Write the structure tokens for this entry.
Amino acid sequence: MAEAKDILDRVKSLKSKSDSMALKKTKGTISGAFIGMAGGLLIGFSRNYNLVSSAFIGALLGGVASSLLLPKIED
């Protein structure tokens, strides 16, 4: 019985140390940046703007928007 309790305590300590939420937020921010970059490319292509600068601005806006919308992480 003590072994089972020891295993559960280890799992709880590993779970509390896990940074999976930080990984999800980082992954979400990167996904938002790529979506913003695609949107910037579409706008730049349709309006004959510089594609590199419009993609960069779109990625910047997409990354900022997704990082603001994703849940906050308790440090």
About this structure: The chain has one domain: 19-75. The radius of gyration is 20 Å. The chain has a mean pLDDT of 83. Residues 19-75 form one domain.
